[in-house]
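To whoever is on call:

I kicked off a structure prediction for a single chain this morning and the downstream step that reads the tokens threw a length-mismatch warning. I double-checked the sequence; it's 259 residues and nothing unusual in it as far as I can see. Pasting both halves so you can look.
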Amino acid sequence: QVAPSDARKVRIDMCAYTADGMPDSVRSTLCLSVGQSYMARARLESDDTPTRRNRMSKCPYCARPIPVDATICPNCVRALPAAVGRSTRADERAPRAWGRLLVLLILLAAAGGYAFKQHWPISSANEVQPENVQPTTTIAPPLDVAIADSASATIEVGRYLAFPFSGDGRSTCHVEGSVAVLAGGDRRVNVFIVDADGLAEVERGRTPKSYFESGPLSAVSLGLNVDGRSRYTLVVANTGTPPRMKRVRLARLRAACMD
């Protein structure tokens, strides 16, 4: 350690050591700086307190303790960089502050990108666009519905024969066949094609609202089209007078249905 009382002697010795071969201006400046550094070192070394320890640094050349405000190392007598030993709390906090700012900028960029995508969606060139698929219509195969085929059938007085049929969803049904009265009374019958409501009227003994009505005839030939998406009933009614039982022949009554 160098006591304050010995600082002047150290300064004189250093000036004598560095005097050879130096201009007077350089020598005086160097001696002054060395003396000031030794004086500061002497004062700090005599004060062994936290303040002293906080104000000491290390020489970047010889790694020995030096005052933080020294410009020349009093140990190796080298000029010190201006920034040696002068870090501050702000310098220590700077990397941490920059890190927080970087995280904030990344979060803001992510939020902005998400909002932009929500309001202005961008269609990628490689994105597969849905093709315009034309609706297809499935065509059901033709349907041949056998309604009735009998060489002889009996109809009691005031009664009727009923034969339900349907096109099972096809668009059109062509109904054909024949009904002939073989015996009984005036040998006349009435043939209807009705839906469920018309059949209810027939059951009540009323003339129904029908899709086909032959009127009282001895022989009836059918050849008409109906909508195959509904359900129907072919009715052969004994409505003639005087009331007698009738015997009829039902020949190839059928419905050919298709889309």
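Update from on-call: the warning came from a stale cache, not from the record. Cleared it. Sanity check on the structure: The chain has a mean pLDDT of 77.
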